[in-house]
């Protein structure tokens, strides 16, 4: 899987997805430190050890580099930034039962907006899975020769 590049300075503010989430009663916001274990556990149960490790790192700096989608106190999805490397987006995921409702798009747009406000001009989507999703929503383009990239030779846990 290759890395993708996103021009943050060229993105519109996420007003549309923000309104759609508000209408659905879903809040997209930065997670806070007391939520660290709950969010990491949620991610581990659905997406495994590796992404849970990244979530823990997202909570280890300020501002916390993890946004969550929440409805009635229940986590529906998450997205991280500035975790595996400075300027990287990801991982991100939506609960399998909640996909197709615009939550992944809203998390992506809000996280890109957060990175732009931190002063980044570009975001790198590390080891992108659903490339078409990123192309469509934020105009991401593949970085030539980036397959495996930073993740080359990564140590994996027994359950990964
Ligand atoms: C990828 C993921 C985050 C998308 O979340 P989602 O909430 O289902 O996506 P949305 O409902 O916001 O979709 C927004 C748009 O993107 C499209 N889209 C969603 N997933 C897509 C995919 N895998 N490939 C191409 N397009 C996709 C949708 O069709 C939708 O288009 P529309 O507005 O024309 O209907 C979710 O499928 C997921 O958690 N996947 C598993 C984890 C994963 O692969 N994470 C990315 C790692 S790099």
- Determine the mean pLDDT: 97
The molecules bound to the chains, other than polymers, are:
coenzyme A
Helical percent range? Answer: 25-40%
Helix and strand sequence = EHEHHEEEHEHE
Strand order of the largest sheet: 2-3-4-5-6-1-7
Beta-strand content bin: 15-25%
- The overall number of domains is 1
CATH topology: Aminopeptidase
Low-pLDDT residue intervals, each spanning 5 or more residues: none
Structural class: alpha+beta
What CATH architecture label applies?
3-Layer(aba) Sandwich
Task: Please outline the major beta sheet.
Answer: 7 strands, mixed
Principal-axis shape equals globular
The value of Rg in angstroms is 15 Å
Counting H and I runs of at least 4 residues, what is the number of helices? 5
